[in-house]
Write a sequence for this structure.
C-alpha cells in the first residue's frame, strides 16, 4: 500500500502548493489595513462610469422599457411578495419591464448566481435585498462595471457595491416609535422588557440603543427597562424566553419585541397565558401574523413600514438612476410617483419614511 | 459489444450535456455560451466539483460522507476567526487543510475502528462540525480579505474564461482519476465496495484504506471551504449549508452505485457539468426556482433507474423475439 501513501502525500503537497501559489511573505489583517478587498477585476472596473465622476441631470427624461430584476433574500416570502407588488406597480406606471427571480434559500451566497445572470442578460437595473452585504459585493461590482444600476433595499449591500440603499425606516424612528407604543399600552408607568433576535443582530441592536436613549427622557421616567432577552429569531426559543421574562419579573407590565418572529411568539404566549390583557406587547411585525392578537385584545398596536411602498420607491430610484436623473450622490433629489419627492442622504441612503402603526382600526386595510 | 458502448451512462451524460448546451444557447440567444457566462458557470460549480472527487471514491467503497459541507463551513469559520486574530493567510490555509484532515480522520476512525455505519456517523458529524463552526466564529461574517487572495475566486485565468477554482479542480480531477482507475489503491477501493469480506481475505487493508478515503474527503472539503471563502470574500460559519446533498447528487448522477463497487471519475465530472449547466440555463431562461428543483430530482431518479433499464434493453437483444422465424 505504499503507492497510496505516495499519492496522499503528493496530493496534500499539491493542494497546499495550490493554496500557497501567491504566498510571498506574510499576508495578515494588519498589513491589508482591514480594507475590504476590491474584488471585481480591475480590468473591468475601468469600463464603468463610477458614481463619483458621472454628473446627474435632474431634467433628463425617464427612460422607458428598462429591464429591471427584483431579487429578494429568497423566493416565496410573503413580505417580499408584497415588496414586489409595489415594485411591479411602479414599473407598470413608468412603462418598464420588471421581473422577480431569486434563490430558494436565504444563505449568504445563494444570490450571487442570480446577480451574475442578471448582468449576463444585460438587465438595466437590479433591486436587491442582500442576504450578506459582503458576499454579494464582488458580483455586484462586476455587474455595475457592465453598466447595471444597483439599488439595495430592506438590507443593504456593501456601500461601494451599490448605487443607493432604500432604507425602510430610520433607526431613530423605529426605536422612538416602539417606546411610544409600549408606554401608551402600559399607561405610562411600569416595568418593561425587550425580546430581541440574536445578541448581535445589527438592526435590533441599533434600535435597542435608541430605545434606551429615549427611555432616559423625563416623559418616560416611570417606564423602567428591566431585562433584554434574546430569542434568536427562532419561534420556539422566543416563546420560551417570553415565559422566562414573565417568571423572572412578576411586576412586568410590557414587552417590546422588535423582530417579526419574536413579537409573534410573545403574543402567542401571552394569548395562551393568564397574563393576557394584563401584560402588553408591541413590536415590529406583519399584519397577517398579528391580526388575531390585535382582534382578541392580546396586543393594542405594533409598527412596520409598508413593504409595497418600499418596492415602489426602490423601483423609482432604479429608473431615476438608469435615466441619469441621479447618480447616488447625497443631496440629489428624485420624484417617486405617489410617494412624492425624496432626497438622497448620507452614505447614499434614501429613507422611506416613518413606519405605519397598526391598530384594531386600520389593520384590515393591509394584507401581507 | 458496440451497443454496450453506446449504452454507457457516461455517453448518455455527455449527450445530455451537449443537448443542454445546444438548447440553452438557442433559448438564451447564445448568452449561455458567452465567455463571461461560462466563467460564472465555472465559479458556481467549483466547490461542488472539488468535493465530489473524494466522495466518488468514498461511495465506490460503499461508504458515504455527509459531513463534507460542514467541514467546508468549519474551514471557512476558521479562516475568518484566525484572520481576525491577526494570523497570516500563509499559516491559516495549510492549518485549515490540516483541520479538514483531522475531521476526515475522526469520521474514518468512528467508521472503521468502532464499526459504525458511515451514514449514521457522518450525519452526526454533519451537525458536530457545523456546531464547531458556529462556536469558532459565531454568526457574524469576516470580509476584509486582501485582493491578492480574493481574486482567485473572482477573476478568470488571464486571457481565458476559466476560473481559478476550475483550474485547480482540473488538476485534482487528473490526480483522482489516476488514483481510482490506475493504481493498486484504486483497485482496492473497488474491491472494498464490491465485497468487503473478499477484499479482506485477499489481503487488502480494509480499515486503513477506508480511513484514507475519509481523510481525503476532509482535506478536499476544507480546500472547498478556502475556495468558497475567497469567492464570496465572506467567511461565515453557515457557508455551504446544505451543499452536501448537491455533492451526493452529482456523484450519484455520475453513475456511481450507492451500493459501492461501481463508478468512474469521468462520469462524476460530467454529472457536475450537467447539473451546473442545467441550473445556469434554466436561470438564464428565467425559469422558476421550483422547476429547477423538480428537474434535478427527475434527473437523479433517472440516474438510479438507468442501470436497470439498460440491463433490460440488453437482455431484450440477447433473447430471440418470440414468434419470430428463427
Amino acid at each position: 500500500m505504499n503507492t497510496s501513501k505516495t499519492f496522499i502525500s503528493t496530493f496534500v503537497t499539491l493542494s497546499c502548493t495550490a493554496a500557497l501559489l501567491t504566498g510571498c511573505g506574510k499576508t495578515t489583517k494588519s498589513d491589508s489595513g482591514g480594507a475590504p478587498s476590491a474584488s471585481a477585476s480591475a480590468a473591468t472596473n475601468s469600463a464603468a462610469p463610477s458614481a463619483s465622476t458621472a454628473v446627474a441631470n435632474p431634467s433628463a427624461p425617464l427612460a422607458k422599457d428598462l429591464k429591471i430584476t427584483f431579487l429578494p433574500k429568497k423566493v416565496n416570502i410573503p413580505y417580499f411578495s408584497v415588496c414586489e407588488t409595489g415594485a411591479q406597480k411602479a414599473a407598470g406606471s413608468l412603462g418598464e419591464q420588471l421581473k422577480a427571480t431569486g434563490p430558494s434559500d436565504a444563505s449568504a451566497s445563494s444570490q450571487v448566481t442570480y446577480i451574475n445572470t442578471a448582468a449576463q442578460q444585460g438587465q438595466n437595473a437590479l433591486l436587491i435585498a442582500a442576504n450578506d452585504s459582503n458576499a454579494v459585493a464582488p458580483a455586484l461590482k462586476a455587474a455595475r462595471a457592465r453598466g447595471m444600476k444597483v439599488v439595495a433595499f430592506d438590507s443593504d449591500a456593501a456601500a461601494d457595491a451599490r448605487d443607493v440603499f432604500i432604507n425602510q425606516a430610520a433607526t431613530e424612528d423605529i426605536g422612538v416609535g416602539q417606546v411610544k407604543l409600549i408606554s401608551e399600552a402600559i399607561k405610562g408607568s411600569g416595568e418593561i422588557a425587550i425580546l430581541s433576535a440574536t445578541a448581535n443582530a445589527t438592526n435590533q441592536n441599533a434600535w435597542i440603543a435608541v430605545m434606551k436613549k429615549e427611555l432616559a427622557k423625563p416623559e418616560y421616567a416611570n417606564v423602567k427597562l428591566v431585562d433584554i432577552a434574546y430569542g434568536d429569531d427562532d419561534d420556539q426559543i422566543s416563546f420560551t424566553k417570553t415565559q422566562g421574562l414573565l417568571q423572572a419579573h412578576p411586576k412586568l407590565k410590557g414587552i417590546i419585541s422588535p423582530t417579526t418572529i419574536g413579537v409573534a411568539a410573545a403574543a402567542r404566549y401571552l394569548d395562551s397565558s393568564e397574563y393576557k390583557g394584563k401584560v402588553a406587547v408591541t413590536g415590529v411585525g406583519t399584519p397577517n401574523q398579528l391580526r388575531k392578537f390585535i382582534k382578541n385584545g392580546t396586543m393594542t398596536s405594533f409598527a412596520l413600514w409598508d413593504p409595497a411602498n418600499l418596492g415602489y420607491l426602490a423601483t423609482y430610484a432604479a429608473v431615476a438612476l438608469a435615466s441619469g436623473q441621479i447618480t447616488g450622490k447625497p443631496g440629489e433629489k428624485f420624484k417617486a410617483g405617489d410617494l412624492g419627492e425624496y432626497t438622497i442622504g448620507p452614505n447614499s441612503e434614501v429613507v422611506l419614511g416613518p413606519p405605519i402603526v397598526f391598530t384594531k382600526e386600520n389593520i384590515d386595510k393591509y394584507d401581507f | 459489444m458496440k451497443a454496450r458502448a453506446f449504452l454507457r451512462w457516461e455517453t448518455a451524460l455527455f449527450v445530455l450535456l451537449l443537448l443542454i448546451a445546444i438548447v440553452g444557447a438557442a433559448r438564451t440567444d447564445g448568452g449561455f455560451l458567452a465567455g463571461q457566462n461560462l466563467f460564472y458557470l465555472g465559479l458556481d460549480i467549483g466547490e461542488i466539483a472539488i468535493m465530489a472527487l473524494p466522495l466518488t471514491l468514498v461511495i465506490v467503497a460503499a461508504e458515504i460522507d455527509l459531513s463534507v459541507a460542514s467541514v467546508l463551513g468549519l474551514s471557512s469559520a476558521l479562516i475568518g476567526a484566525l484572520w481576525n486574530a491577526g494570523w497570516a493567510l500563509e499559516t491559516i490555509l495549510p492549518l485549515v487543510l490540516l483541520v479538514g484532515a483531522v475531521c476526515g480522520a475522526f469520521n474514518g476512525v468512528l467508521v472503521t475502528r468502532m464499526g459504525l455505519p458511515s451514514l449514521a456517523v457522518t450525519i452526526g458529524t454533519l451537525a458536530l462540525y457545523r456546531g464547531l463552526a458556529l462556536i469558532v466564529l459565531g454568526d457574524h461574517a469576516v470580509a476584509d480579505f486582501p485582493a491578492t487572495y480574493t481574486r482567485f475566486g473572482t477573476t478568470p485565468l488571464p486571457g481565458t474564461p476559466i476560473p481559478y477554482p476550475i483550474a485547480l479542480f482540473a488538476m485534482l480531477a487528473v490526480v483522482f482519476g489516476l488514483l481510482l482507475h490506475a493504481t493498486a489503491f484504486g483497485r482496492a477501493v473497488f474491491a472494498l465496495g464490491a465485497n468487503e469480506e473478499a477484499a479482506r481475505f485477499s489481503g487488502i487493508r480494509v480499515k486503513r484504506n477506508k480511513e484514507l478515503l475519509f481523510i481525503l474527503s476532509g482535506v478536499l472539503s476544507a480546500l472547498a471551504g478556502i475556495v468558497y471563502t475567497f469567492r464570496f470574500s465572506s467567511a461565515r460559519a453557515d457557508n455551504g449549508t446544505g451543499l452536501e446533498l448537491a455533492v451526493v447528487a452529482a456523484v450519484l448522477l455520475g453513475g456511481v452505485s450507492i451500493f459501492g463497487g461501481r463508478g468512474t471519475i469521468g462520469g462524476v465530472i460530467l454529472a457536475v457539468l450537467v447539473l451546473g449547466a442545467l441550473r445556469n440555463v434554466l436561470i438564464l431562461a428565467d425559469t422558476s426556482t421550483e422547476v429547477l428543483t423538480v428537474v434535478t430530482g427527475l434527473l437523479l431518479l433517472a440516474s438510479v433507474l438507468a442501470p436497470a433499464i439498460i440491463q433490460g434493453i440488453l437482455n431484450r437483444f440477447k433473447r430471440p423475439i418470440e414468434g419470430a422465424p428463427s
Observations:
- The first helix of chain B runs from residue 2 to 6.
- Chain B touches chain A through 74 residues (CB under 8 Å).
- Chain B has 14 helices and no strands.
